[in-house]
Please model this.
Amino acid sequence: MTDMHHTAISSETAVENPSLALMLQRRSIRAYQADAVPAQLLHTLLTTARQAPSGGNLQPGRFIAVSGALRQQLSDALLADYEAKVPECEDYAYFPSPMPMQLKRRQAASAQALYSALGVGRDDRAGRDAQFARNYRFFDAPVALVVTIDSHFGHGGYMDLGMALYGLQLAAAAHGLGSCAIGALASYPATVRRVLGLAETQHIVCGMALGWADLEAPVNQTQTTRAPLAEYFTEMS
Model:
């Protein structure tokens, strides 16, 4: 969903400001060390994430840590859906439809950065599918989170939850951990609800992998760019 990027902010400024450094250095981590994340540390990260702004202080969304046999059962079920090409029926639309060409180019560039880091060629369908399937194993991270939101929330609830998700990723980075938001988990919400025994009113937003990064893994060398300021900022007077 997001990766490391470069901005016009100087490295000197980032070093002087730890908060800026975290934001500039954060990237999506897709390979992890096996070391467990202590439960108390995970609780601290989630409590910190809840400091994100929230309209009316409603604080939408739930974070569900899945482990052990249940995690394996969930991954197996999602992989079965993916490999059988079960039609996707998301609880919410993530990508615009149709996708404008400008956004298609960004998406393609992001994929190219990832697969190039892995040495997977454009025509290597099997290699690309194998890497994508790792989404459903939470990239073998020590912590696997499923993020949900009550179906009665409006669009603003997703905005507030998104800020909490970013807060969680920054809090993780501040403690030396890596993370990766997993939008692919939302492709099969009925399966997630069935395996976890969730109510139909619990919409599946995404997954989250979290743990200490394997810094030697090629997949973690992926870097993507961000749009220049002029593309998304306008001054009016």
